[in-house]
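Form 7-S
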Amino acid sequence: MKIIRLLFFLLIFLNCLFSQTNQSAEKTVAAIISDWFRYSHSDVILSRILKTYTLDGHGQKSQLKLVSVYRDKPTEKDMTVSLAQEYGFKISGTIEEALESETGILSVDGVFIITEHGKYPISETSQVIRPNRKLFEEVVRVFKKNKKVVPVFIDKHIATEWDDIKWIYETSRKLKIPLMAGSSVPVSWRYPPVDVDTHSKLKEIVGISYHTLDGYGFHGLEMIQCLAEQRKGGETGIKSVQCLTGNKVWEAAGKLFDKDLFNMAIERTGRKIPEGKNLNDLVKEPVLFVINYYDGLRGFLFTLNGFANQWTAAWKYEDKKMESTLFKLDENLSTLMHFANQVLGVEKMILSGKPSWPIERTVLTSGALNALLISKANSEKVIDTPHLRIKYKSDWRWKEPAFRQ
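Output:
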């Protein structure tokens, strides 16, 4: 009887030991990239898997292991060969090889797709035509062949054109592929550390952005959407959009957007307008993205080159209460820790199989950006977006980042 009891407890002990060992085991990942050079998105994302989250070899270690990389558009600046020699991952000639490692069987636990810095064609609406659908299709082909799927992360835009965005989204849902995408801005620091009240209805959001419309305007839209999705009732989808430029932006003050809310967002930038000057003097080519939601919420994203150099937002509830914050990124090139917060979210998805934030957020921001730039190219007309009537409730909630700046 004692021997049976001892064997019983031994089995329990071995089972617990096996479970703990299995849980702590690294998950292997493949990366499909355009290029890998210093400070590229491939570098600031994937290097945290190789060099710890702080990029110095002394920080928190990732539970992911990079085993293979496929390059779509390597340039003379590409560092992949030297990094592969140093860290032991393989450079693959095809996406299939990257995912199967010459075994003929899907042998990775997750996939990164990063095409931010590739030298790709530019569309008629001044968007980079990223090959994300083509690359994702190759990944899906391997999944179907193996009758198995693993989580996928697509850096920034899901794709450029709506047909491609829709195909990637619908395919991921059909095959039950855990999918994440988007910007690092939503998971950055906030000063003050506030978020939208989930029990209140929102009336208006005003955001400040800068730099390019395709690359940085996308970040601004992700900022607005990560706030909008928190409102009471959840997301209802985007009904229409419009892009205004030049004097039409200033003429919209008090007509389209709340000037007090705009001023709150401007104040959060921490920048002062020189005495005797106004924004008109500093910003020669203002751009305004107008986003109309199905439940009546309105979003306004200003690109104010010549003044702004950070992302800020202010929002107003139906009871007229207003709040605002600065979305603060790490400006130190040697750390850029906002990417660490993003990669940690991706790591959690690959470990758990459950996305850390909703893919619908980036379906809306990618689709809205495409429609907004169509508006800009077509005499700034209003573009109806019935295809963006995407409803969802977000389980994600902003909290102070795990890493310090």
